[in-house]
Amino acid sequence: MTDQPTNQVAMFSPDLPTWLVAHAPPEAPYLLAHATDGVIWGRVDGGRLIRAGEAFPGEPAIDVALRSETLQTARLFGPEGELYVWRVGSRFGYRLLVDEVGGPETAVFADQQRLWGTRGERGRENRAAGFTLLVDGRQGLRHAPPVVGLMPDQRVALRLQHYVAYDAVGQAYVSESRLVDLVIE
Asked: Which of 19, 71, 104, 112 falls 20 to 30 Å from 51 in CA-CA distance?
């Protein structure tokens, strides 16, 4: 595992989506961002970041802009690594975690967390753009992760990887965690 220092300050120039793609690890196809005005799912295709809002324009909960003014956190992730950006006051810090083949041995364990929502009767899919609208509960909570091919009752889950370190007395602890993949259950 290669871990870039976490005290770096992100300077989003000329624009946030371009900066994220340029600084992400190779083979990091997914974006999960949290902003003050909503959750933003995206995927990288041909060096371009495509937001779920482009697949479902006009959907208020889905069509959230990716702007540095409202961004709280962002993760561009995939099997090889993750770029994690977070707000610190009016500035941003970031960390790049990349798994190296043949690098030093690091103890890791996998985890999976189910996302809320199914396609059900109200969700829909935009295969061309690569997103599926998931709906949950009576309130009709919505989000659109970058997955396609779900049956109406199937669920989507985030795969995570946790890195284990040891303190001075040999006690194990999770030193870092990162998103790895989106899977259909």
From this structure: 112
